[in-house]
Amino acid sequence: MSEIKSDQAYPNAELGMRLASTREEIAAAANAAGRNPEEITLIAVTKFHPVAVLDSLYALGVRDFGENRHPESRDKANHLHERHQDARLHFIGQLQRNKARQVGRYADCIQSIDREELVAALATLERDSQEPLDVTIQLSLDGDTSRGGVPLADAEGLAEQIAATPTLRLRGVMAVAPISADPDAAFAEVREVSTRIQTVVPGADWISTGMSHDFRSAISQGATHLRIGAAITGLRPDRP
Asked: What domains, with CATH codes, occur in the chain?
């Protein structure tokens, strides 16, 4: 992992200002949608940034962090769990079957469950915690599953399989709006699928949508979790 020093690349003042600005925009979008900003969880995505940035964000009140690459996510999860007991690491990237149990042992939540073979792999998961692993179903909004996500028509079937797996706890759905799509329409579709999923697993009400460029639209369509990177951390470093 990169050894960039946080006081050189990530001045706390700049990080704090970006985070404060993002929080203000989240609150404004929530209020405009008639929602309570406190019901929305901000997940800070820190891909390629050093662990010092996680410490700085934690000091600024962030408790949820997102990563999409193993083993970088493993190293950051270990760092968070050793130093900050109430911090949570969300794995948000495409997941390979042969890495599923590795990720499942350290992540607090895997947001990218999109096929039955991942559920089968995680069915034999052993964790230090006795609690099931939180997961969300990643939806494919354009039908191109090569970029991750289950076809919308198959989402309920996957929810049923997760619900029948004692090692897992389905929390809701996750999606990325296609680049060419209208985000309002895309996220409205996610909201509709979320409603269907909750008929299978009552209480699986997470809607993880919205990133730096479209989180305002996501909030208007019911997002409960936002995955925001550059708007908070600034330009991403080169891949280490």
From this structure: 38-233 (3.20.20.10)
